Input
Amino acid sequence: MSEKKKRSFPTAFTVLFIILILAAGLTYLVPSGKFSRLTYDDITNEFVITDHNDEVSTEAATQEVLDRLHIQLALDKFTEGIIRKPIAIPGSYQRIEQHPQGFLDVVRAPITGTMDTVDIMIFVLILGGIIGIVNKIGAFDAGMSALSKKTKGKEFLLVVLVFALTTLGGTTFGLAEETIAFYPILMPIFLVSGFDALTCIAAIYMGSAIGTMFSTVNPFSVVIASNAAGISFTEGLIFRIVTLILASIVTLGYMYWYAKRVNKDKTKSFVYSDEATIQERFLGNYDASAETPFTWRRKLCLIIFALAFPILIWGVALGGWWFEEMSALFLVVAIVIMFLSGLSEKEAVNTFVSGSSELVGVVLTIGLARSINIVMDNGFISDTLLYYSTEFVAGMSQGVFAVAQLVIFSFLGFFIPSSSGLAVLSMPIMAPLADTVGLSREIVINAYNWGQGWMSFITPTGLILVTLEMAGTTFDKWLKYILPLMGIMGIFSVVMLIINTML
Output
């Protein structure tokens, strides 16, 4: 009698497609609705108001107009360019004709999602090409061999260093999508150092996630949210720094516990069943006992590749870069490494193309994840969910209000994964509610940051499924790893938020 075939967890594609269908189903159940939105036109010095019927009107850009619309923001927030995106006008929510997303909308959404994210896809494909060339010439093998000798007995320092750097990037400039570039170069190093794939994912992904969740000066979350709430982002800064440090210590403690557990018994790894596949994907034929010469050519190629990362971080943090500029940077790096590789022109190009093809699954996942947001946006249900949320928290006591805000922003974070998008939509409406219960608006900013950030640990519409596809593992393995930490961080956030209301 043949052995019954074991069922495996669905791939990222299947998980995302199931969520896409569920999102389309929500557009039949949740009423469609819109808030009117206001933008500032710096050419005409006017406010442009778009109502729920998409009818456009203009008003003189004055403080009186803002007061009349119950937008509790100073005029200079608009005239000085601090707030650029359309903001929701409080009290303007209106039901509109239902926009259910049917079969054709669902099948079109992945195509539209792919077109919307083509800049990220190009970046990933170029990165894959570089990895292919660096692997072909043996530079990774030689580098890992040299590194493993130097880090013997101090392996966890690698986890601490990577986590600290990505956390710093997350809390200062919102390092997130850019971390996709880190996996191909760091995963082999973590594997050679004795860690499993989940520890590498946690060091990179959770570093940026904890950093962005407990943002201190991140312009794409805490700064834009504070501006939209009508307060300075420096309010509560010291408290946010202390919370970030404590959260980082807790997260590193959990990662250390798991890494030591796996180090003692490899079968305790949640990705133990995938270990051979992951090793083959990232280490190939690497043999730790074999001595791969670390020649000048290999060293130079690795140095050039490594130098691209601080340049990338500088560009994103200070140079206003996005994926077009990042892709251009890595394309230059690819061309330089091709010349230095010692490979023939034909071999170098074919290796680059072959390396890119290894990440086709990752880029298709990116497009499919975006399609879920497209379906929800086209169904006009996000504003409705925000409206119901504001009705829910109105009139609550201080402590309950703070915790309810955290829960609401966790919920909204699933449907509106863009931190800046959620901030400008929700803050003009949510922040004034803090005044009604006698709390600082800083509480709402922290609830927004921590709630949305907490949900990002597992939000399939965010980066996690793309990350898992890159790492060669599945969502169920990640859930086993992250859910205990997610519970700890949820309790931690509630406690810190309650403490925040007492200060």
Remarks:
- The CA atoms of residues 30 and 93 lie 14 Å apart.
- Residues 1-5 have pLDDT under 50 and may be disordered.
- Strands lie at 33-34, 37-41, 46-50, 56-60, 87-88, 94-95.
- The longest helix spans residues 237-264.
